[in-house]
Amino acid sequence: MRIFLSIAFGLYLSFAGAVLAASPSDVAKSPSCSQCGMDRGKFSHSRMLIAYEDGSTVGTCSLHCAAVELANTIDKVPVMVSVADYDSKNLLDADTAVWVMGGSKKGVMTGQAKWAFATHAAAERFIQANGGRIASFDEAIKAAYDDMYQDTKMIRELRKMKRLKQQGGTAPQ
Asked: What is the pTM of this model?
């Protein structure tokens, strides 16, 4: 009996691990961000998916990269912009998501964090723990465009320091 239970438990753990490790279908189709190349699975809590009128889709790691994508494809008409719910990592309509801007939790590709939640209650819980304020998608994407210069400058500096570190050099003080 003990051997049977051990085998059953081992099979359960193997199956549960495979299910938990499975990527969402949008991450399987677009594993890296179309703008910066970051792993969308690693950033599944902030990832976005843009569907265009021509049937094409583009996956990004963050609102910052989605804003870059939308600015660079001005002649393509987006029909759906989806964002991951911070908690469940499931995609939802960016327009109906409850957005939180700011707070102490470091953002993805931005100095001013912008997170999406499926419910107002979840957003409020996040604010209680990390600060920030409720915003609409329009406010969040406008902030992404407004923050673009500083965010791009920050990303360039971080990548420069990373390259120096990989080359064995030291970052300037």
From this structure: 0.81
